[in-house]
Amino acid sequence: xxxxxxxxxxxxxxxxxxKVPMAELRDVLEGLGHRDVxxxxxxxxxxxxxxxxxxxxxxxxxxxxxxESRFGFRVDCLVRGGDYLAAVADACPFPAAELEGKQLxxxxxxxxxxxxxxxxxxxxxxxxxxxxLGDRVLYLYAPDGLGRSRLGEAxxxxxxxxxxxxxxxxxNTVLRLIEMTRED
Length: 184
Prior knowledge:
This protein has 184 residues and is of the alpha+beta class. The chain contains 6 helices and 8 strands. The chain folds into 2 domains: 3-82, SP0830-like domains (Alpha-Beta Plaits), CATH 3.30.70.1280; 91-178, Alpha-Beta Plaits (2-Layer Sandwich). α3 (82-90) crosses α6. It is globular and about 50 Å long.
């Protein structure tokens, strides 16, 4: 059974560090036996199909190992099915259609983001910024963008995300990855 996935790489191609050219990332994914490999932007977004009956975690581990072998450094990755990405968008509690893509973000996690992790954050202190939790995702509304978001910093502190891989995508990228993973 063929399934389409998105691979989300964390922290690559930022300020010239941890360079992973997208053409080489496509080669890595194809080398793992995946097909229909496409990348989006230079920030570590790839889409592929596979017949492998592997879990997202197994696909993630294989990709992380292959990247380390190819580039000589480890990159945290998350692999998510297109159906999961669409469900995340459908469950968004913020009025995405009324916002600019840079104002709304999905922070994807490698595991459940239990509310207790965020209990120490005084939400009122960050208004008008807001966040809401979903299935292995945090929705972040940052009206001035992620780069200026104080709440974005608070929800990504090591004490909050300890033990989880987290990677954020703006809403434009979220929607584009859903479009790319749609199975016709």
